[in-house]
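Example record used in the benchmark description.
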Amino acid sequence: MASLILALLEEHANAEQVKTCLENCGHEVSVVSNFVKAKAYLKSHEADLIISDVHLENGGDMFDFLRWVKKNQKTRSIPFVLFSSQPTPIAKLLADGVRTTARILGAARYIEMEIFNAAEFIDHIHSLLPKEKIKPSIKV
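Model output (structure tokens):
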């Protein structure tokens, strides 16, 4: 059985890397581009994991989304991962504070990558998924 993963990723190239990486491991990935679409998706679909850009710019912010997920009865138990790809100097400066606040609000993981590394990314993601939803024979 494949894991169902919702990815709120605004940048197209970043979204494609994440989607391809996860689908190559047998997961089903739905990518949305903003907070409103992510909420609408979760109201009508199941998810085993949520991945969100750390720095959202197109309506709502990551903390709003995380708070909404963790307050909602249907979604509060879904692991929530923050992903920062190619962080700017300011994002790097703020990373520790964002990471700490996100953990307090219920995020399971904060992943920061200068350059996307599929194997490292998958290791982080698979550590949060039920073992029965991971296909061990698929290579990244």
